[in-house]
Protein backbone atom coordinates (compact mmCIF):
# COMPACT_ATOMS: atom_id res chain seq x y z
CA UNK A 1 0.00 0.00 0.00
CA UNK A 2 1.61 3.39 0.73
CA UNK A 3 5.35 3.52 0.11
CA UNK A 4 7.16 6.68 1.16
CA UNK A 5 10.72 7.27 0.00
CA UNK A 6 12.83 9.86 1.81
CA UNK A 7 16.11 10.94 0.27
CA UNK A 8 18.36 13.23 2.25
CA UNK A 9 21.96 14.15 2.88
CA UNK A 10 23.85 11.89 5.30
CA UNK A 11 24.37 13.00 8.86
CA UNK A 12 21.37 11.88 10.89
CA UNK A 13 21.69 9.21 13.55
CA UNK A 14 19.90 5.89 13.24
CA UNK A 15 17.61 7.04 16.05
CA UNK A 16 16.69 10.21 14.12
CA UNK A 17 16.00 8.21 10.96
CA UNK A 18 13.87 5.70 12.89
CA UNK A 19 11.89 8.48 14.56
CA UNK A 20 11.37 10.21 11.22
CA UNK A 21 10.19 6.99 9.57
CA UNK A 22 7.84 6.22 12.48
CA UNK A 23 6.31 9.69 12.41
CA UNK A 24 5.83 9.56 8.64
CA UNK A 25 4.17 6.15 8.97
CA UNK A 26 1.86 7.41 11.73
CA UNK A 27 0.83 10.38 9.62
CA UNK A 28 0.17 8.12 6.62
CA UNK A 29 -2.01 5.87 8.78
CA UNK A 30 -3.95 8.79 10.23
CA UNK A 31 -4.43 10.71 7.00
CA UNK A 32 -4.66 7.95 4.37
CA UNK A 33 -6.72 5.73 6.69
CA UNK A 34 -4.74 2.55 6.17
CA UNK A 35 -3.32 0.03 8.62
CA UNK A 36 0.21 0.52 9.95
CA UNK A 37 1.29 -2.85 8.58
CA UNK A 38 0.49 -1.60 5.07
CA UNK A 39 2.96 1.31 5.24
CA UNK A 40 6.58 1.16 4.10
CA UNK A 41 9.04 4.01 4.65
CA UNK A 42 12.56 4.00 3.24
CA UNK A 43 15.32 6.49 3.95
CA UNK A 44 18.16 6.76 1.46
CA UNK A 45 21.15 8.92 2.22
CA UNK A 46 22.59 10.66 -0.82
CA UNK A 47 25.83 12.60 -0.74
CA UNK A 48 25.53 16.30 -1.56
CA UNK A 49 27.83 15.86 -4.56
CA UNK A 50 25.49 13.18 -5.97
CA UNK A 51 22.20 14.97 -5.19
CA UNK A 52 21.60 16.53 -8.59
CA UNK A 53 22.23 13.32 -10.54
CA UNK A 54 20.60 10.84 -8.15
CA UNK A 55 17.68 12.88 -6.80
CA UNK A 56 17.02 16.23 -8.44
CA UNK A 57 17.06 15.06 -12.06
CA UNK A 58 15.14 11.78 -11.74
CA UNK A 59 12.67 12.75 -8.99
CA UNK A 60 12.24 16.54 -8.81
CA UNK A 61 13.03 18.38 -12.04
CA UNK A 62 10.28 18.13 -14.65
CA UNK A 63 8.17 16.10 -12.20
CA UNK A 64 6.06 18.83 -10.61
CA UNK A 65 2.81 17.04 -11.44
CA UNK A 66 3.50 14.53 -8.67
CA UNK A 67 5.17 16.90 -6.18
CA UNK A 68 3.06 18.27 -3.36
CA UNK A 69 5.81 20.23 -1.65
CA UNK A 70 8.98 21.50 -3.31
CA UNK A 71 11.68 23.41 -1.45
CA UNK A 72 9.23 24.29 1.29
CA UNK A 73 6.47 25.63 -0.98
CA UNK A 74 3.17 23.85 -1.36
CA UNK A 75 2.40 23.25 -5.03
CA UNK A 76 -1.06 21.69 -4.66
CA UNK A 77 -4.12 23.51 -3.39
Description:
The chain has 77 residues and is α+β, with helices and mostly antiparallel strands. The protein has two domains: 1-45, Macrophage Migration Inhibitory Factor; 49-77, no CATH class. The chain is built from two helices and four strands, in the order E-H-E-H-E-E. The chain has helices spanning 14-32, 51-60, and strands spanning 3-8, 40-45, 69-70, 73-74. It has a two-stranded parallel sheet. A two-stranded antiparallel sheet has the order 3-4. The longest helix has 19 residues, at 14-32.
Question: What descriptive keywords fit this protein?
Answer:
alpha+beta; 2 domains; 4 strands; two-stranded antiparallel sheet; single chain; two-stranded parallel sheet; Macrophage Migration Inhibitory Factor
Summarize the entry for a quick read.
With 77 residues, the protein is an alpha+beta fold. It has two helices and four strands.
- SS strand fraction: 15-25%
How many separate domains make up the residues?
2
For the CA atoms, what is the radius of gyration? 14 Å
CATH architecture classification of the largest domain: 2-Layer Sandwich
Sheet with the most strands, sense and barrel status: 2 strands, parallel
Going across the major beta sheet, what is the strand order?
1-2
Amino acid sequence: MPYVMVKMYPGRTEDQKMRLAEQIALDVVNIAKCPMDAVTVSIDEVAQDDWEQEVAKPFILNNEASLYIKTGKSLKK
